[in-house]
Amino acid sequence: MSISKERFHRLEFATKGDSRGQLIALEEDRQIPFTVRRVYYIFDTQPGVVRGLHAHYDLEQIIVCVKGSCTFKVFDGIHWQTETLNKPSEGLYVGRMIWREMHEFSSDCVLMVLASELFRDADYIRDLDTFKSIARTQREATP
Ligand code: T46
Predict the structure, then answer these.
(1) Could you give the 3-state DSSP secondary structure of residue 132?
(2) pLDDT tens for each residue of 17-28
(3) Which of the residues 2, 85, 130, 132 could staple to 65 if both were Cys, CB 3.0 to 4.6 A apart?
(4) CA 143 to ligand 1 centroid distance, Å
């Protein structure tokens, strides 16, 4: 068993290549299933660093490794899943209430993130046991 595709999945983007090079376009309601309210990027991550280590109550994101590589470990409260990103033509959709950790950043890694909401500290769950408990409560409340 793995995390439901509705909440977490891999995406493949069409590359518009020609003799000059490559271009990838991400458009709302096409590749992006939400209105993009924020874009941020992560780069210069130092060797051995683990980032993330949190979940979001409400945020949805599309994460693209536009350069280099990095490994995501994600957890829905039941299943852990590991996905490596190493192509600008692939991305991850990470829905609500998914714990995420980013490991094994290459030194040239640039992660671009498209987010459905503005930055809000109160949307973060930063403790794994708290996340497990909230995820369990939400599962039990779902018919
Ligand atoms: C996520 C993963 C993939 C802001 O001021 N605005 C922002 O939009 C963001 C994302 C962060 N910040 C501040 C908050 C911290 O002081 O930047 C600092 C580093 O953020 P954080 O430690 O949360 O970074 P990561 O790499 O652990 O996690 C980030 C996102 O926060 C998170 O939503 O899913 O990237």
Answers:
(1) helix
(2) 999 999 999 999
(3) 85
(4) 33
